[in-house]
Amino acid sequence: MASMPVLLLVLVFLLSVDYANAQTNHSNNISLGSSLSPDANLTSWLSPSRHFAFGFYPHGDGFAIGIWLINQTEKTVTWTANRDDPLVFSNATLELTRDGLQLRIGAVKNIAYIHDTPLNETASAAMLDSGNFVLYNSSSVVHWQTFEQPTDTILGGQNLSTFVSLVSSVSTSNQSSGQFFLYMHYDGNLAAYPRSTYAPSDSFWSSGTNNSGTDVMLTLNRSGVLFLHGDRLGVHILARSHYPDKKNVTIIHRATLDTDGIFRLYSHHFESDNSSSMVVEWSSLANQCEVGGFCGWSSYCSGVGANKAECKCYPGFEFVDTSNKFLGCYRNFNNNDCRRSKDPAMLYRIVPLENILWGDYPYSSEQMKKEDCKISCLKDCNCGAALYTGDSCAKYRLPLRYSRASKSISATAFFKVIRKNIPTPPIALHPETVGPKIERKRGLILVLGITLGSISCLCFMFAIYTIFRYKHQVYRYRTLSENTNLGLIEEFTLRSFSYNELEQATDGFKEELGKGTSGVVYQGTIPGAVGDERTAGYFYLAPEWKLNAFISIKADIYSFGIVLLEIVCCRRSIEVNVPTTDEIILSSWVYDCFMAGELEKLVEDENVDFVTLERMVKVGLWCIQEDPALRPLMKNAILMLEGTMDVPVPPSPVRSLVVS
């Protein structure tokens, strides 16, 4: 215990030295009016040591703006500006102005900033040897720096404070946001998660420093010591560099949440002859398969070590994309016949898989024998897979996630797959069916005539039905609009807004709630409405917006699901003029009808294909799950709608977040 204060003082001293070095390195200052362009001679600004560069770098078919290490075998990007925004091209210009760094595309007057808002009184900028790009005001004080907005990396002298996260990149050549994030919790715990979820139980690595205080932060000092520190915690060292400083050798350390979800400490060695090398000093996990979500839905991770992991499909599944096996798998058969069959065991068989485990919750768990577990899943239409451990049989709906195989796992999985080569009774040909060619031609003409006549009659009847149906819908809408005694209906009637109305409601688009894949959502108040509930009704915001939770691309999937159910049912998501109160909320009513086997209520007297209707309803219910991790990717949703991918029975959209 006596050595702890001494160690803390030493580390604090190192931190102060790092900070002083980072802030006082003002050489090679960048003056106002300086600019960069991919199409000009000057594409980047270098640090005094020429180890770091800030500017445009090639990214796919265009360019991105960021910071990278120079003289590396492969480009090592340590920071990227607005990493999920569209790429820029050779006609882009980045200029240092009094408002900060302005990005201009061609001759367009509209400009953007690589920081959140314009910065007044910017006087100069500098690319420091620490890897930090800073903007100074007229008093030579830093008023913006890249160290305060990390992407997937922290460098020597940089901190990661409470509520700040590192987000992995898609790949080493694509610095857009990937599928994992490292989060500094309010209680002092540093934890890694898949981006598709934020449930504490889904963390696949943590520092184990829970309840250590609200002032804990992660620091990497310039000597290569990666540690957590706070008043109550003291100093908790995660890793340290094994290479001391040498003459004529510059060592730069970085800690990166890599594309595979593993947090690693690196050291880059720059020799005096401009040669360089890189060493992995520490990894948060030794086994790649321990990373939750490394392999996608309905697939499992197999292998030992950081570079030997392989994603494989469950029995009866195929890869969504064979060129990218990390995207997961889909069922290669349809399960719709199970509920219509009197004996599902005739349609399916069970394939066992040993030494496998996954991270989802079962809908049923009972004590039984191993053989009985297999038979129970085979006869249960809800069961896509069962897991037998000890003497317990747990049954699961599909899809499954966070699966891994290891010889150390004592469990047997049973997967339900369709029986192949089911014998079909041959069709007997009797002599009396073979007649003269003329008779066969007459029969064929007669069949064709009857068929074409029936089709024409059906088309005529359908046209008449469509006209009456349209008039009926118009009449209902007109009645709804003219009825002044409906009270709250006006609150839920959709209407369009002009740009000026939206600009006034959002106070000039002042407060940004967040970004999705299809645009930006702003906070605003519509006259005559209460708070932002009216806005939420129009834009179908996912539950995580109101919970102030981590926002991912799954928020847009929720909106898609609501719209899909509206299209299927030909009504709004909230409808007051309905026969019963159970029908007011569309999502709840659809789920109740689905579970009761009464989907015909959703389409009234329309003549529809109920197999297609059931598939669309199930896809819609999966998309509106409160737990973002349960919502499918848009690519998978399309495959399910097309019938290419099997659609499992969805859980209750409201209860999903509580259960998982």
TrEMBL record:
<feature type="signal peptide">
    <location>
        <begin position="1"/>
        <end position="22"/>
    </location>
</feature>
<dbReference type="Pfam" id="PF01453">
    <property type="entry name" value="B_lectin"/>
</dbReference>
<dbReference type="InterPro" id="IPR001480">
    <property type="entry name" value="Bulb-type_lectin_dom"/>
</dbReference>
<feature type="domain" description="Bulb-type lectin">
    <location>
        <begin position="27"/>
        <end position="148"/>
    </location>
</feature>
<dbReference type="InterPro" id="IPR011009">
    <property type="entry name" value="Kinase-like_dom_sf"/>
</dbReference>
<keyword id="KW-0812">Transmembrane</keyword>
<keyword id="KW-0472">Membrane</keyword>
<dbReference type="Pfam" id="PF00954">
    <property type="entry name" value="S_locus_glycop"/>
</dbReference>
<dbReference type="InterPro" id="IPR036426">
    <property type="entry name" value="Bulb-type_lectin_dom_sf"/>
</dbReference>
<dbReference type="GO" id="GO:0048544">
    <property type="term" value="P:recognition of pollen"/>
</dbReference>
<keyword id="KW-0325">Glycoprotein</keyword>
<feature type="transmembrane region" description="Helical">
    <location>
        <begin position="444"/>
        <end position="468"/>
    </location>
</feature>
<protein>
    <recommendedName>
        <fullName>Bulb-type lectin domain-containing protein</fullName>
    </recommendedName>
</protein>
<dbReference type="InterPro" id="IPR051343">
    <property type="entry name" value="G-type_lectin_kinases/EP1-like"/>
</dbReference>
<dbReference type="InterPro" id="IPR000858">
    <property type="entry name" value="S_locus_glycoprot_dom"/>
</dbReference>
<keyword id="KW-1133">Transmembrane helix</keyword>
<keyword id="KW-0732">Signal</keyword>
<keyword id="KW-1015">Disulfide bond</keyword>
